[in-house]
Amino acid sequence: MRHQTELLAPAGSFESLRAAVNAGADAVYIGGTRFGARAYAENPDEKGLCEAIEFAHLHGCDLYLTVNTLLKDAELEELGTYLKPYYESGLDAVIVQDMGVFSYIRENFPDLDIHASTQMTVLGAEGAEFLKKQGATRVVTARELSLQEIRRIHDTVDVEIESFIHGALCYCYSGQCLMSSMFGGRSGNRGRCAQPCRLPYQLEGGGKLLGKKGEEYILSPKDMCTIEILPEILKAGVCSLKIEGRMKRPEYTAGVVRVYRKYLDCYLEYGAEKYHVDPRDYGELQALYNRGGFSRGYYQVHNGRDMISLTRPSHFEEKGKKAMQEKQRYEALLQEIKKEYLDKDKKETIEGSFQISLERPSELTVRYREAEVHVEGEAGQVPKNQPMTEADIRKQLQKTGDTPFTFGKLSIQMDGDIFCPNGQLNRMRREALEKLMEQCTAGTRRTAEGLPEARMSKKAEGGSAKKSQKSAHFPLRVQLEQVDYLNEVLDFPEVRAIYLTSEKLDFQKLPEYAEACHEAGKECLLVLPAIFRTPARQWFEERMELLRNAGLDGLVLKNLEELEFVKKQGLELPLIGDHNLYSWNREASIFWKKQGITGETLPLELNDRELRERGADGAELVAYGYLPLMTSAGCLHRTVERCDHKETVRMLVDRYKKEFPAVNYCRYCYNVIYNSEPLSLLNNKEEIERIAPESLRLCFTLESRKELRRILKDYVDVFCGGAPGRKPEYSYTKGHLKRGVQ
């Protein structure tokens, strides 16, 4: 079932799915019991989800299953068994984040559509083109993209585009957030985000608190509502209009769907010139859920103070008369929606014809879309008393009861005076409707064969962890943001390579830096930006000749756009995938190698046991550094102070007075919030030897020159000089090395 323009609704339960379908959704996305990005929703079990697929198809809707989390190696072994019943029931598509999952589904369920999740952080045409080449039929764009950027994808890549039009916004780019994970082990990449962005924070700079009193929710975006700019979104090339809200009540789903259904139909019938939103409908959307008003998301602005719900993180004000009135209106609205869309299911209109005569069997034909069913009964009888009228027969056949059908057109042909028992009419009607239901759902069913073996046969390709070496020496690689410290790093012969980050780098001096590294016997690599949107793409396009002749020994890539961009530009350099190119499982590791990634970075959220099981051959382990918790289009400097296009370091202060460095990188216009303490594995030498990575990476961003030398010397002593592991003298975290995520 394909819709040229699709209204896509969320469902966190079977009830929410019913609500969405009854209110007019063209498609629904829902999670099962595993592998979905809303682990705390009331996701249906296997039987319930198969029934949901049947229910959706019966009403002309598509159903998409979320498999949009990162999978550990052992979990990937179970994916085929998990998907098989849904695939065989006619599942229309899966929404995927993990490229290992993507590869597995493409191989074992080749005719199942794959939608690239917003968790993949698709930032532009390059990422969309890369995914199209791998077999994706649809990409879900990052929420941060502008209409112009979406239009470029549409004009460049022949792939379906799905974009969010309503609901909650994350502060961080989806798929790039580690804040919840690092705070308490509930990973957004596993569907368990604890929403720390909805907590109060303050911004500190120059030794004083910044911003206005009472404006504490500086990481909490307002919900998005785009009902007023729906025509512009459609003109940009979006074919699937996605509503967020799998954690919301069924009444919320139905209420939002019905408003957008009304205006989508209006636009499709009358065009943009007659498109006008009734303030009452906008008010209804606000009543269903808002955080101090709506924004239109990022479609028309890159960021801004008006997008943030500074004074409240949730729907209702905490107290007062206004809060009471809001709650009363909300409850009344929910009751009205429940009565219309949840207390009964919508009926699909079918056509029918009934023929009866004394000389041949009676026949009932029913039609719904492409399905057509014929049922025969006994011939008519000579009436003993009053003959049946057409109205009598019509009344009996139209008793469709609790089936999902109702007759629209029903033609009846009868020869003269005739009689047919009501029991026969009832039997024919029941049989016809049962066969119609079966025919409507049978067309999308399929058979899956030979799944587990296909996965198992590949396991050996990923390699296995090396045996531990008691006196292992690990090559060190240093990532450096402050290039002024380059000479300090060059003094250490144990450092094999230096990664220069591009956010603040003077590109004209790249050849000079590369030569200095080479003279010291070290490789020089360039780290591309965390976010590769229009500003970054244009920056690199203008400097391609410089990059080709800089003498670089490789590039470190952080996203799909960069991988495709580098290939298109013909830069023939070794490519290292950073931790953002997730490879939690062997299947993902194999995938990246096939794409030309010669070195990979081990995942930050796996513990030491999981890293050993995954294998670390040829991989790099981040052993020191302030880890990026959030990368955002939103700018704290602009929200709390003003935009002056000057890079600053501010401190984000939480309720417990912990300070998190926040840096606005103006060259590419994004923010990074770093952890309050650096990751340090200096005291975990034995664990690292058992993991056996190819090398260790030390990431320096905010450290002083003196701190860099001290930290680097410690790592040289322990991992190159044979000294035992030891606790650092500074406050630190071990990250997920000993705990991991659920």
Overview of this protein structure:
This protein folds into 4 domains: 284 residues, TIM Barrel; 92 residues, no CATH class; 94 residues; 220 residues, Aldolase class I (TIM Barrel). 34% of the residues lie in helices and 20% in strands. The strands form 4 sheets. It has an 8-stranded parallel beta barrel, surrounded by 6 helices. An 8-stranded parallel barrel has the order 17-18-19-20-21-22-23-29, surrounded by 4 helices. The chain has a 6-stranded antiparallel beta sheet with strand order 9-8-25-26-27-24. Helix 1 runs parallel beside helix 2. The longest helix has 22 residues. The two termini are 36 Å apart.
Q: What's this, in brief?
A:
The chain is an alpha/beta fold and 742 residues long. The chain is built from 25 helices and 29 strands.
Write the layout of secondary structure elements.
Blueprint: E1 6-11, H1 14-23, E2 27-31, H2 46-58, E3 62-67, H3 73-76, H4 79-89, E4 93-96, H5 99-108, E5 113-116, H6 125-134, E6 138-140, H7 147-156, E7 160-167, H8 179-184, E8 202-205, E9 208-210, E10 223-225, H9 230-235, E11 240-243, H10 250-270, H11 279-288, E12 294-295, H12 321-342, E13 348-356, E14 362-368, E15 371-377, H13 390-397, E16 405-414, H14 422-442, H15 451-456, E17 476-480, H16 486-490, E18 495-501, H17 510-519, E19 523-527, H18 534-541, H19 544-548, E20 554-557, H20 560-569, E21 575-577, H21 586-594, E22 597-601, H22 608-614, E23 619-625, E24 628-632, H23 636-641, E25 649-653, E26 659-665, E27 670-674, E28 679-680, H24 685-691, E29 695-700, H25 705-719
Parallel strand pairs: 1-2, 1-11, 2-3, 3-4, 4-5, 5-6, 6-7, 7-11, 10-12, 13-16, 17-18, 17-29, 18-19, 19-20, 20-21, 21-22, 22-23, 23-29
Antiparallel strand pairs: 7-10, 8-9, 8-25, 13-14, 14-15, 23-28, 24-27, 25-26, 26-27
Helix pairs in contact: 1-2, 1-10, 5-21, 6-7, 6-20, 10-11, 10-12, 22-24
